[in-house]
Amino acid sequence: MFDFFPSRSLTIYLAKTFVSRILAVLLMLVLVLQMLDLLSESGNILAQPGNGEAELMRYVGLRLPQLIARFLPYAILLATIITLAGLSQNSEVVAMKAAGLSAHQILAPLLLSALAFSLFSFAFNERVVTRANGTLKAWVDADYGPIPDDPTLRSNLYLSDGQNIVRAARVTGEGRNTVLHDVTYYLRDDNDMIVREMRGLQARYVGPGWMLDGARQFDVGPAAQTTLTEPVLIARDLNLAQLDFRRVDADAETLPQLAASIDELKAAGRRTSELEGKWWHKISGPLSAVLMPLLGAVAGFGLARSGQLLARSIIGMTLGFAYFVVDNAALAMGSFGGYPPLIAAWAPFVLFFLLGETVLIRTEE
Asked: Which pLDDT value is given to residue 326?
């Protein structure tokens, strides 16, 4: 063993204790959240004619990978605090320090275990979660009914036509054969206030613009509704390239697939900073599990006789949850173009790594 690790027996003991608590906490979180989520969605699932227990189980099977991937870092954080708080309370940390081990040596088995979970999380996201995301999204868009066998199907899109907005419940077809279904067209004035709303069954691309069939028009000023007997041309500034850009779902694509999508959009002259940030986050996100033992380590170190175990545990939880808040905020800023994609995905990781090291060193002193 390297000097960075304690003895073989102690390494195995700490790793087994930590891993068992990770699995226990993750199981508890996933079961509770899955139950609550199923209760909230079961009405929508069973509202579809013909759906029953099999569809409920199908929903659980598709939702479960998402919950595991999302809450694994939280489980590692809580398991770190539970493990180290227990070791500190039983004076095991004091015994290890008396044997000459530093705080980093005590944390080494936990960090190694967290790294293994990070690698598992990355592979799990690429092989399982992306497929579950794509299937579940298509099923939800079909109102939990039969999923249309159409690879070009897209749903619930909001698109800009200058200052006006087009909403389409579904989009089918490609190129000049593209059709918008259940269309709502919002016309806005210079103050971005809606002055007219037009609803239609479908809109066919005629380039430029879209021909809306079966339209009903509502004028906000006089509060008058009119049924139009003839098709009407709308959204002259809405082109097919905007629809192609909206088709990329980063959560449902693997790293190579998303990289290829980004290259295609770049070649078309589209802005890709949001997708690039999500590409990098597919790597930094799973790796965040390695940070959790470092951020939660404050719960196990410090003077055991000070009686501040609860306060140290709260500090550890605060640091861990603060990371997730900052990480989401940075990713959102990257989507808006406030940060470069690489910075948006990795800056929180580096910042909290340095913060965790600082807190650990200060606490140990």
From this structure: 94
Q: What is the mean pLDDT of the chain?
A: 86
pLDDT for position 1: 43
pLDDT of residue 226: 86
Q: Given the structure tokens 């410090």, which residue do they identify?
A: 302
Structure tokens that stand for 267 in this block: 């070649």
The residue among 154, 169, 163, 239 whose CA lies nearest residue 205 is 239
Contact 299, 312 (CB under 8 A): yes
Q: Count of residues for the chain? A: 365
Helix H segments across the chain? 8-47, 53-89, 92-98, 103-124, 130-141, 240-246, 255-267, 273-287, 291-295, 309-335, 341-364
Q: Identify the residue whose tokens are 């749903």.
A: 155
Cis ω on the peptide bond leading into residue 208 (within 30° of 0)? yes
Amino acid at 87: L
* Segment of 177-181, 235-239, 283-287 carrying the highest mean pLDDT: 283-287
Mean pLDDT lowest among 61-75, 82-96, 109-123, 138-152? 138-152
User: The tokens of 306 are what?
Assistant: 């000070």
d(CA 203, CA 142): 19
Give the pLDDT band (50/70/90) at residue 333.
confident
Give the separation between CA 160 and CA 285, rounded to whole angstroms: 31
Amino acid at 347: A
Burial of 362 (0-12, 13-18, 19+ CB in 10 A): exposed
Domain residue limits, the chain: 8-143+274-364, 163-236
Please calculate the CA angle 351-107-363 and round it to the nearest 5 degrees: 65
Q: Which of 279, 276, 269 is nearest to 242 (CA)?
A: 269
The pair of structure tokens assigned to 307 is: 């009686």
Instruction: For residues 279 and 258, give the distance between their C-alpha atoms in angstroms, rounded to a whole number.
Output: 7
Phi, psi of 223 (to 5 degrees): 55, 50
